[in-house]
Amino acid sequence: MVMLESNPPLAQVYDKISSVKTTRERAHVLQSEDECEKFEQLPLIDLKGLTSNDDDERATCAVKIVQASSEWGFFQVVNHGISSKLLSQMRREQIELFNASFSRKSTCGLLNNSYRWGTPTATSPDNFSWSEAFHIPLTKISDQACYGEFSSLREVMVEYAAAMQKLAKLLASVLVTNLDQKMEDFEKSICCDESTCFVRLNRYPACPLSQEIYGLVPHTDSDFLTILHQDQVGGLQLMKDSKWVSVKPNKDALIVNIGDLFQAWSNDLYKSVEHKVMANPKVDRFSVAYFLCPSYDSLIKSCKQPSIYRNFTFGEYRNKVQEDSKLIGHKVGLPRFRQ
Questions:
Q1: Which of 159, 240, 294, 301 has its CA 20 to 30 A from that of 260?
Q2: In terms of Cα–Cα distance, which of 10, 7, 13, 14 is closest to 103?
Q3: What beta strand segments (E) does 174-267 contain?
Q4: What keywords is this UniProt entry annotated with (predicted)?
Q5: Does the reported pTM lie above 0.85?
Q6: Is 164 domain-assigned?
Q7: Burial class of 332 by CB neighbour count within 10 A (0 to 12, 13 to 18, 19+)
Q8: Out of 15-29, 127-141, 152-166, 285-299, which region has the weakest mean confidence (pLDDT)?
Q9: Are 332 and 324 in contact (CB under 8 A)?
Q10: Range of the domain at 90
Q11: pLDDT in tens, 271-310
Q12: CA 249, CA 287: separation in Å to the nearest integer?
């Protein structure tokens, strides 16, 4: 038994479920040292090409985005238009917020009561995440009442969310156009704006059980696309060619990954790839993720026929993901919606 003090009390919860050892969890423990022998450099795309006056440069940049989305499901972007000053401010404010006591974070209603930690549905170590987060709807980011004593966070969050929203729409327009659709038509049928999207502040505390537990369990994202700003600690891994590969941090780049909805919308042209975060035994890891999500009643349908997936609403998809997580301990996702 571990019985360690922690903020949040992750170790105490781990003690309660650590006696349950599933085959999948044991395999993770045995393979954690060897499954990722090297860091992998994700496709790196300079987004200056998208704003070039040269038609060929714009087309070349768009092709790189499409190729990375199809072959990797992940890529990095530089010259993305979000200042390093803003990213640094966000990181400082984020660390200050997470340094608050557990009781303060969990009971005072901060950021629309969006605080969460661990995995409430976990019944064994293989589906428990050693992490904490604030998962904040964009509709609440400008609400001063959500911030309490962390008033300086509001201005940074407002600017950060607006910048991420702009970047996400730019990338989405490339992917939508490649599917022979107009972005204007896509936005009419799929509402992805301030009323539907989220920003998630993540902290992965140093974990003395790093060989036994994930910082964030393997999963795919249930959105159209995600933009991630991570620190230099590392720990992000993704599935490539049926193997886990570690992503080497790049201080100048943001990471973009395709979500389940773009995979379904593109009829599997774009790939929503399973990924995870490995716990670190010595240092905390911080990241901020922006999620491009539609309204719950938005209809998700493949743009090509014959369609691999049946039509479904985002609300239906979310409900099924939550139902599976409660019943079987993990997300199933798109396979539930195959024709």
A1: 159
A2: 7
A3: 198-204, 214-219, 225-230, 236-240, 243-247, 254-258
A4: Iron, Metal-binding, Oxidoreductase
A5: yes
A6: yes
A7: middle
A8: 15-29
A9: yes
A10: 10-303
A11: 999 999 999 999 999 999 999 999 999 999 999 999 999 9
A12: 11
Q: How far apart are CA 258 and CA 241, in angstroms?
A: 16
CATH number reported for the structural domain that contains residue 65 in this entry? 2.60.120.330
pLDDT averaged over the chain? 91
- As given in the structure block, the two tokens for residue 177 are 């156009």
Residue 28 CB contacts under 8 Å (≥ 6 apart), including other chains? 126, 214
Residue 124, class by beta-carbon neighbours within 10 Å (0-12 exposed, 13-18 middle, 19+ buried)? Answer: middle
**Residue 155 has which token pair?**
């201005």
Measure CA 301 to chain center.
Answer: 22
Displacement of CA 91 from its chain's centroid (Å): 16
Task: Please enumerate, as own/partner, the contacts of 295-302 that have beta carbons within 8 Å and a separation of 24 or more.
Answer: 295/191, 295/195, 295/196, 298/189, 298/190, 298/191, 299/189, 300/190, 300/261, 300/264, 300/265, 301/264, 301/265, 302/264, 302/265, 302/266, 302/267
**Considering its fold, how many domains does the chain have in total?**
1
Q: How far is CA 213 from the centre of its chain?
A: 19
CA distance 6 to 285: 15
Nearest to 289 by CA among 207, 226, 214: 226
**CA-to-CA dists, residue 271 to 64, 74, 219, 330, angstroms:** 15, 8, 13, 20
Tens of pLDDT along 155-214? 999 999 999 999 999 999 999 999 999 999 999 989 898 899 999 999 999 998 878 889
- The larger pLDDT score, comparing residue 30 to residue 336, is at 336
In a domain? residue 283: yes
**How far is residue 121's CA from residue 145's CA, in Å, rounded to a whole number?**
30
Token pair belonging to 278: 């490995």
CA distance 187 to 298: 10
So what's the pLDDT on residue 21? 55
Is residue 134, in this structure, part of any structural domain at all?
Answer: yes
Q: Evaluate whether residue 335 is within a structural domain.
A: no
For the record, the structure tokens of 229 come out as 């700003």
> Which structure tokens are listed for 163?
């910048």
